[in-house]
Design brief:
With 482 residues, this protein is an alpha+beta fold. It has 14 helices and 17 strands. It has an 8-stranded mixed β-sheet. Strands 15-16-17 form a 3-stranded antiparallel β-sheet. The protein is globular and about 65 Å long.
Length: 482
């Protein structure tokens, strides 16, 4: 019999970055050219712009010349935040190398990477959240339960955006949502993508793919985004029933709520009655608090998420953003921009405000506006620099990412050609003469064992005898070569 809710869950974040290159005395490089310069080192050692790293993560060049970082599988929200921040550091280092290479080519240029969701041409790129759920759960009831929450969630973790007309919105992604639930990702971008790619045993698991969220600079905003969604999943898995909150038009609702930071705007439910965005959040929060009271779940970190969630909604109800201005991206940004506009007597439609809005998302330490606030201790953190630095090179030790990271490190150490994806580890050369079933431990001492692909279908499994054997064979191969 299935548990009321998972005691462990796998989380992942996929972040697409905006990239531009400023040059002096040289033609401006296109986004495609800038991205290709950024990935030159990656292609040089990985022979591809789509590679897995020793920390278990994946970096690649996505459609539209967007560099993308997909974190390794994490079963702890704090660790997920560290690996998300590690992605920023990894791409910043690649940008510094690209700048040096440009100078060697006689081009005075500098690459800028932005962790945001819209460009000056009105295009949107995403931050996708992944939550592992059981295959026995039907997807439609889960998505129906989640959509009203996700539509209103922007109030507690939106990244904030100044529209060209000077109007402030709490979310960057809201205006680019065209459906509640769909298998599409671009043309009719939904809030939840239903494409069935579990990256795990398809008989046991699903991957819930949420693509409505903003890319957050604030660690506590990301923490609240993931943690509150985890609590809502636990609500569903526990069988909690909420009154009918289905929205008449989710895409209209998400746009309307983005224009009201305090959540007072009313949206229409499928029943015909109306409810404010703040009230929607309060219903979900109240149910989560009740679940904790009844079950004693969850642990201390999710209880801390609940406490922050409650404090954010209390501040919104009081229409006082002061308590939010160290935690919530849109409130941090709004205060920063307001002070600048007041100091220089500028309307919010002034191009300088737009520039500051973008500069907030510059990932370069010591240059981006959010980074400067962080350096001064003006915003809260979940991690510290030592933890982020460790996440740059070390995979999570309690999930499948540990196996992948160890394999990548071992294969690179001995210089063999290899292939990796979320579930498969494989040494490519020379081609095996006989293929064995991937789920069978290779026979000890067989010459071809090194070239048998290993399938790792359980994302919770941090140990595997087959991988241990593969690592041993790689080590022997390196010793022989030496």
């Amino acid at each position: 019999m299935e548990q009321p809710f998972l005691t462990r869950r796998i989380y992942g974040l996929e972040t697409e970055f905006g990239v531009i290159c400023h040059t002096l005395g040289h033609r401006r490089l296109s986004a495609d050219e800038a991205a290709r310069h950024l990935f030159k080192d990656v292609v040089a050692w990985g022979r591809s712009s789509n590679v897995f790293l020793a920390n278990g993560s994946r970096i690649y060049l996505d459609v539209g010349s967007h560099p993308e970082y997909a974190t390794a599988e994490c079963d702890d929200i704090d660790e997920l935040i560290a690996h998300d921040r590690a992605g920023e550091r990894i791409f910043h280092e690649l940008a510094q190398r690209a700048d040096h290479r440009l100078r060697e080519e006689g081009i005075e240029g500098e690459l800028f990477l932005f962790k945001n969701n819209t460009d000056s041409h009105g295009n949107s790129y995403g931050c996708h959240e992944n939550y592992l759920i059981g295959r026995t759960r039907e997807l439609a009831p889960i998505t129906a339960f989640l959509v009203p929450f996700l539509v209103s969630r922007q109030l507690i973790c939106g990244a904030g955006k100044v529209a060209p007309n000077g109007e402030f919105r709490v979310s960057q992604r809201a205006d680019h949502m065209w459906d509640g639930v769909s298998s599409a990702t671009t043309r009719m971008r939904p809030m939840i993508n239903t494409r069935d790619e579990p990256h795990a045993d398809p008989g046991r698991f699903r991957r819930l793919h949420v693509i409505i969220g903003d890319s957050n600079m604030s660690e506590t905003s990301t923490w609240l985004k993931i943690g509150s969604t985890e609590l809502i999943l636990r609500l569903f898995e526990s069988g909690t029933a909420l009154r009918n909150l289905a929205l008449e038009n989710p895409t209209r609702a998400v746009r309307d709520l983005a224009r009201d930071p305090f959540g007072r705007t009313e949206v229409v439910l499928a029943t015909g009655r109306t409810i404010t965005g703040l009230e929607l959040q309060q219903v979900y929060l109240g149910a989560a608090l009740d679940l904790v009271e009844r079950t004693g779940e969850p642990g201390p970190r999710l209880r801390a998420v609940l406490d922050l969630w409650q404090r954010v909604l209390t501040a919104l109800e009081a229409q006082d953003t002061t308590p939010l201005e160290t935690h919530v991206d849109w409130a941090i940004k709004r205060r920063l921009l307001q002070r600048y506009a007041d100091r220089h007597s500028l309307p919010w439609s002034d191009p300088r405000i737009q520039q500051l809005d973008l500069a907030y998302h510059d990932i370069a330490p010591g240059r981006g506006l959010f980074s400067l606030l962080e350096d001064r201790g003006a915003v809260s953190r979940v991690t510290d620099e030592d933890t982020v630095e460790r996440a740059r090179t070390e995979p999570p030790q309690t999930t499948r990412a540990r196996l992948r990271g160890a394999f990548v490190s071992a294969a690179q150490a001995v210089g063999v050609d290899y292939s990796v994806d979320w579930t498969t580890l494989k040494v490519n050369e020379p081609p095996p003469r006989a293929w064995r079933a991937p789920d069978v431990l290779p026979s000890a001492g067989a010459a071809d064992d090194l070239y048998v692909p290993v399938m790792c279908k359980d994302p919770f499994a941090a140990t595997d005898e087959r991988v241990d054997r593969l690592l041993e064979l790689l080590a022997r191969s390196g010793s022989r070569d030496g």
